[in-house]
Amino acid sequence: MDQALVTMAQIGVALPGFAGVITSLRHRGNAELLPPEIRGLLLMLTLASIVVIGGIAPFVIVTAVGERQTWRICGVCLGLMLAGVAGYNAWIAHRDRDTPWAPRRPRVLRWSFVVPGLVVAFTQLLGAFWPSPGLYLAGLLLVLVGGGRQFMLLLVLAPMHERPAAAGQEGVSTLPDE
């Protein structure tokens, strides 16, 4: 169990690092990041931060309150953080609808992240009544999968929005050629 938590924390540190390298290589021409790119990076950074904190927190908390209370506290905190992240992303998608920066497939966002995120959050909140290291580890793993999903989207999806023209350039488009 301890090794799994440490490994998850290490992966949570590595994901934003690799994402930073990829983003800097993609934007060598000093092009600014578009709002959807910023939103995706922030979501990945948030999920990775939750995994890192969630992987380290049990080691700190167990010394103060004991093992059973540790899983209760960590599960409830993980559930609250994940509910907040899922709710915030649902609000952002709702706010940006009918704009050029709206998610390309809002139903995919809703059913592949927001709903599973809320289910995991509520499952973790049940840890207040039935604390379990396995339940906590499963919740943390699903958060890590969400961060990995964002990382994969960063790698494989080309920007689909047109960039504003920079000074001295006619118009720079990142739309794929048809």
Low-confidence stretches: 169-178
Strand content: under 5%
**Element-level helix/strand string:** HHHHH
Query: Would you tell me the structural class of the helices and strands?
Result: mainly alpha
Question: Could you tell me how far the N terminus lies from the C terminus, measured between alpha carbons in angstroms?
Answer: 50 Å
* Outline type: globular
> How many strands, which pairing sense, and closed or not: the largest β-sheet?
none
How many alpha or pi helices? 5
Q: What is the typical, i.e. mean, pLDDT?
A: 79
Query: Rounded to an integer, what's the Rg over CA atoms?
Result: 19 Å
Number of domains: 1
The total count of strands amounts to 0
What is the share of helical residues?
A: over 70%
Structure description:
The protein has 178 residues and is mainly α. It has one domain. The protein has helices at 2-26, 35-65, 67-95, 106-125, 133-156. 25% of the residues are buried. Residues 169-178 have low confidence and may be disordered.
Write the topology of this structure.
Layout: H1 2-26, H2 35-65, H3 67-95, H4 106-125, H5 133-156
Provide key terms for this protein.
mainly alpha, 5 helices, disordered C terminus
How would you concisely characterize the structure shown here?
With 178 residues, the chain is mainly alpha-helical. The protein is 72% helix and 0% strand. The protein has one domain.
